[in-house]
Amino acid sequence: MRPWSTRELRYLEEHAGEGAGAVAEALGRSTDSVEWQARQCGLSLRKRRQCPNCGRWTFRPLNRISGWCIECTKEHHMADLAEQVVAMREEAAREKRNDRERQRHYSAKSRAKKKKNSHGKSHG
Ligand SMILES: [Zn+2]
Fold first, then answer.
1. Cα(37) to centroid of ligand 1, in Å?
2. Secondary structure (3-state) at 49
3. Deepest in the core among 5, 34, 46, 65, taking most CB within 10 A?
4. What is the CA radius of gyration of the chain?
5. Residues 6 or more apart in contact with residue 57 via CB below 8 angstroms
6. Ligand 1 centre distance from Cα of residue 57 (Å)
7. Ligand 1 centroid – CA 66 distance (Å)
8. How far is the CA of 92 from the centre of ligand 1 (A)?
9. Is residue 97 predicted with pLDDT exceeding 70?
C-alpha cells in the first residue's frame, strides 16, 4: 500500500465529511485505504452536508425543497407563519374598521331618513 503523503492526509482531514467514496475518488485511492487511514487518524467518514444558508455542517439530510438544514427550514417556516399572523391581524383590524364605518353610515342614513319623515309630518 502506497504511504499517505501529508497533502493527502490534510485532504482527508478536510474532506472526511464528504464520505469515503468521494475522498477515495479525489485521491485516486481505494475506499478501503481511505477508511483504514481515517480510522488511523480518528476521523469520521460519516457524510455531512453544509447548509448553504447558515453554513453549518449537519449529518442530517438537507431539506429537499429549500436545500437548507432542518433548523434553517424550521426558522424560515416560523418567519412565514409570523408574517401570516401579522397579515391576518391587519386584515381583521381592517374588517372591523370598515364594518364600524359602514355601521356609522347606515345609522346616519336611517337618522336622516327619520328626520326627513318627522319633518314632513310636522308640516302636514
Ligand atoms: Zn442552516
1. 30
2. strand
3. 34
4. 35
5. 17, 48, 49, 50, 51
6. 8
7. 10
8. 34
9. yes
Residue with cell 488511523: 40
- Predicted TM-score of the model (pTM): 0.53
* pLDDT given at position 120: 56
- The three-class DSSP label of residue 84 is helix
CA distance 62 to 71: 10
Residue 76 Cα to ligand 1 middle (Å): 10
Which residues, including other chains, have CB under 8 Å from residue 95's CB and lie 6 or more apart? none
Return the percentage of the chain with pLDDT > 90, whole number. 81
Quote the pLDDT of residue 118.
72
* CA 53 – CA 65 distance, rounded (Å): 13
The three cell numbers of residue 35 are 477508511
User: Is residue 76 over pLDDT 60?
Assistant: yes
